[in-house]
Every structure is written in structure tokens, then in C-alpha cells.
Amino acid sequence: MPPLHSFAPATRAATPSTQMSRSPKADVVEMLNAALACELVSMRRFLHHHLTARCADALAAANAFLLCFGEQAALARRLVARIGQLSGRAEYGAAGLVAGKPMDETVLLPLPEMLRQDLAEARAAGLRYGRWIAGALELDATTRQLLESVREVRRRQEARLHGLHGLLAARRGPLPAAG
Fold first, then answer.
1. What is the widest separation between alpha-carbon atoms in the chain?
2. How far apart are CA 86 and CA 26, in angstroms?
3. First-last CA distance in the chain
């Protein structure tokens, strides 16, 4: 039997009024895989920023990025576990699941730019999780609680990054505006 996320929508006839959608479980697994992709992309970005900040002797920033990386890894493990509980298959091909600009790991960004990038992603992730929670009214309680806890971790990360931004701004001036 193919994994749940690979089922295409079934239809009775060609008219939209008679179309049946995939099973709710398949939709939940697909949404959880999209959430997993977000976490995998964030893990990669935070690890890259941690290593870059360490090389620049910005230890407070490096530690904050490493803490965020660890939190993302824990969230990813929880999402994979939930996908498995729903008899789904976790998709680890994050690049194809999350739209956005690819990360160029050969470019060493200055710390203010790394923080700006991470704050922008934290805000976007919070909005994504909010939409997933609001748009999935028929979610089971376990999946809903998982998504709400992921969103809460993301909020704490955003607050931590804002605090780091405050420290940096006090030492070097405000971050440049997002462009």
C-alpha cells in the first residue's frame, strides 16, 4: 500500500460539486510534512549562522543560534513521530517542500543581516503555523496541540532573537531595514 501522502485526490465525476477530497489523515500528514520542511530549513539556517557567528567571535549570537538549532531539531523529531503515528511517511526533501530563496552557504553574512534573516523567517513561520492551526478545524487534539506547541517555541525564538538584536543595536546601532 502506498504511503498516505502519495494518494491523489479521488473524484466521482468531472464536476467540482461531486469531487471527493483525500482522506483527512492524508491532508494532516501532508501538512505535518510541510511543517517538518520548515523545521529542517530552519535547522540548516541556524547551524550555518551558529558556525558563522563562532568564526566571527560573536559568542552570544553563536550560542543563541545553537540553542535555536537544538529547538528546531526537537520540533522536527516530534513532527516525524506524529507523522509515524498517523501511518504516514516523513519527507526529508526540504528544498522541494518550502518555497523561498535558497540559502547560499558560501556567502558570509554580517551578524546584523543574519539576525534580520532569522527574525523575518521566525515571523513568517509564526504566520504559517497560525494559518495551519486556524485552517485545520478538524484536526485531532494531538496534532493541534503539537502545532500550537511548535508555534509557541517559534515565538520564544523570535523573542530571543529580538533580545539579541537589542544587544547588538546597543553596541553597533540599529539593524538595517529589510529590503
1. 65
2. 9
3. 48
Compute the distance between CA of residue 39 and CA of residue 77 in angstroms, rounded to an integer.
Answer: 10
DSSP the chain: ---GGGPPPPBSSSSGGGB-PPPHHHHHHHHHHHHHHHHHHHHHHHHHHHHHHHHTT-HHHHHHHHHHHHHHHHHHHHHHHHHHHTT------HHHHS-SPPP-TTS---HHHHHHHHHHHHHHHHHHHHHHHHH-TT--HHHHHHHHHHHHHHHHHHHHHHHHHHHHHHHH-PPPPP-
Neighbours of 175 (CB within 10 A): 16
Q: Which three cell numbers stand for residue 178?
A: 529589510
- Which tens digit of pLDDT belongs to each residue from 24-75? 788 889 889 999 998 998 999 999 999 988 887 788 889 999 999 999 999 9
Among candidates 3, 142, 158, which has minimal Cα distance to 71? 158
pTM: 0.75
